[in-house]
């Protein structure tokens, strides 16, 4: 039985859901576990032929240890990922611009009709 705890090297906090996999000369054996809430793990090594343990987690540098030489406390170092800049460019859709203008013309026409009907109704009441 191989047991241990996986911690963040920068702040000693436990790393939950880190992957702990058994390897045979760098080749995965298909046996592995995820760490618990406290960063702890236990994995059986019976009959796997494994001679290494690899510990990994997204955002951290993976580490591989020989089974007999590993410490029960494994510290993973955060890995920085550099990405390039992103440029977001927007353009107006000419069809939508023409549609917006058409609606403004229709709205203006409706307002003229409403204003004219108000004037007509006032003139009809004044007589």
Attribute tags:
four-stranded antiparallel β-sheet; alpha+beta; three-stranded mixed β-sheet; rod-shaped; 1 helix; 127 residues
**Adjacency order of strands in the biggest sheet:** 3-2-5-6
What's the helix-strand series? EEEEEEEH
Radius of gyration: 35 Å
**Largest sheet at a glance?**
4 strands, antiparallel
Class per helix and strand makeup: alpha+beta
Low-pLDDT stretches: none
Query: Number of DSSP strands?
Result: 7
Task: Provide mean pLDDT, rounded.
Answer: 89
Helix content: 25-40%
In short:
With 127 residues, this protein is of the alpha+beta class.
Walk me through this protein's architecture.
By secondary structure, the protein is α+β, with helices and mostly antiparallel strands. Helices cover 26% and strands 30% of the residues. The protein contains one helix and seven strands, in the order βββββββα. It has a four-stranded antiparallel β-sheet, with no helix packed on it. A hairpin with a 2-residue loop joins strand 2 and strand 3. The longest helix has 33 residues. The radius of gyration is 35 Å and the shape is rod-shaped.
SSE arrangement:
Blueprint: E1 2-8, E2 19-24, E3 27-34, E4 40-43, E5 52-56, E6 63-66, E7 73-76, H1 94-126
Parallel strand pairs: 1-7
Antiparallel strand pairs: 1-4, 2-3, 2-5, 5-6
